[in-house]
């Protein structure tokens, strides 16, 4: 509870800092919203053109895309600067966080807070539309709603875990931007689409090495297509917790290797 | 209060390669050099001491401070602050420490000074009544009233340093680590900060470890000096014994009007250079007063111009070895 209060306080401070530059603040918000709208339009064009992707209908693919978008918005809102750890390592800014009687990761999560309102709105709207279509076609029951909430939460945790693991590698390698492009951006973009469109080796990669398929694809198989069973959701949650736990462990090891900068 | 035993910090460096494709080979190579930023140092500091930790750039001062405050983990050896490790018990130790890095602010850059204090107060669980009182005290002592509501990025260096010192003291720590608290400040600002530090050391009994490049800081504040060079401690003792050890060499440059006599061998000063009509001599102020030195120089011929240089800091450090 105490840490939650601390987190809230730091987030407010960070928001107030950003609000000092109001034009930049609103422009950033508008631009991110615009980018995600364009991204989805692209998907919509593909789907309306072909009707379905490898047996996935428009509504199903939309559901997959929407849950992942919300998960990502959640992760990047709540832990935005974990993705930018490199900046702290190169400039030695992590010093300031290490001097304070709060967990360093919590401090980092609260820096440069950005609420990804565009992604949230777009994700939730799309999710509502797709779930309604699936209801009407009888593919979903009411139980899908709480399950979807769980999936979004577990997906956010998984993305956070993968992001944290990648970021902590920075304690060893310092520069990690390109690695993040692969493990975070490329991998996540890949699983916005049904996994079956990819060759086998790539499916394997996204299920094991960078298990981002567990964020929304695997649980969606059960929720909207009725494949497998409830255990798919449990497995996804377990993968998310495991990856995040590993991230925390690596974080602890990494902090001890932090080199700061000369002064 | 602070115990440092056999503390060592090594940094890995990639060695430069020679010959063709050296950049590529350096990138692929797995071997690396080891630089010992801090090498097997031990010391302890008692409550209420004011210790100057000095040395040339790159000597390992900041690395030591960063290890003491829990930012860097040592390669070997250990640090104890009130018996606690700043690494495995970082959060507990951080409550007892006030740390200032003069080169970099710890305040929220875009927010008013007051807001930074509020955030810090919350981090350290300072009760609201205590907080108000303490901010008022610090505000009066450091004369911060005029800029309490100014964003940190708009402060002058002197103001920012005062605000940073106040921030380091807000949670009333017993120990202060100050890394170059007077760097870049003008004479007045330096004097004010020194007066403040002396007060909190003498009257509030704060233990202070200070690094600086300013010899006046050391002379006016520190009861004890630790000199570090190349990661090793070269001297640890009182300021008086440091002075005894190296003397206080003053350099006097005298230009004569016409050809002057040269000093004899039993002269109490040392002639270091002679160019034309200009002599450069070095004298130890402990042995000879400035006036006497000038009188001796005047005996050599009619003086046109005199220039005196106080001992250079780097020079003094050099002499410790």
UniProtKB/TrEMBL annotation, chain A:
<feature type="transmembrane region" description="Helical">
    <location>
        <begin position="25"/>
        <end position="47"/>
    </location>
</feature>
<keyword id="KW-1133">Transmembrane helix</keyword>
<dbReference type="InterPro" id="IPR010390">
    <property type="entry name" value="ABC-2_transporter-like"/>
</dbReference>
<feature type="transmembrane region" description="Helical">
    <location>
        <begin position="205"/>
        <end position="224"/>
    </location>
</feature>
<keyword id="KW-0812">Transmembrane</keyword>
<feature type="transmembrane region" description="Helical">
    <location>
        <begin position="117"/>
        <end position="136"/>
    </location>
</feature>
<feature type="transmembrane region" description="Helical">
    <location>
        <begin position="230"/>
        <end position="251"/>
    </location>
</feature>
<protein>
    <recommendedName>
        <fullName>ABC-2 type transport system permease protein</fullName>
    </recommendedName>
</protein>
<keyword id="KW-0472">Membrane</keyword>
<dbReference type="Pfam" id="PF06182">
    <property type="entry name" value="ABC2_membrane_6"/>
</dbReference>
<feature type="transmembrane region" description="Helical">
    <location>
        <begin position="142"/>
        <end position="173"/>
    </location>
</feature>
UniProtKB/TrEMBL annotation, chain B:
<dbReference type="GO" id="GO:0005524">
    <property type="term" value="F:ATP binding"/>
</dbReference>
<keyword id="KW-0813">Transport</keyword>
<keyword id="KW-0067">ATP-binding</keyword>
<feature type="domain" description="ABC transporter">
    <location>
        <begin position="19"/>
        <end position="255"/>
    </location>
</feature>
<protein>
    <submittedName>
        <fullName>Vitamin B12 import ATP-binding protein BtuD</fullName>
    </submittedName>
</protein>
<dbReference type="InterPro" id="IPR017871">
    <property type="entry name" value="ABC_transporter-like_CS"/>
</dbReference>
<dbReference type="InterPro" id="IPR003439">
    <property type="entry name" value="ABC_transporter-like_ATP-bd"/>
</dbReference>
<dbReference type="InterPro" id="IPR003593">
    <property type="entry name" value="AAA+_ATPase"/>
</dbReference>
<keyword id="KW-0547">Nucleotide-binding</keyword>
<dbReference type="Pfam" id="PF00005">
    <property type="entry name" value="ABC_tran"/>
</dbReference>
<dbReference type="InterPro" id="IPR050763">
    <property type="entry name" value="ABC_transporter_ATP-binding"/>
</dbReference>
<dbReference type="InterPro" id="IPR027417">
    <property type="entry name" value="P-loop_NTPase"/>
</dbReference>
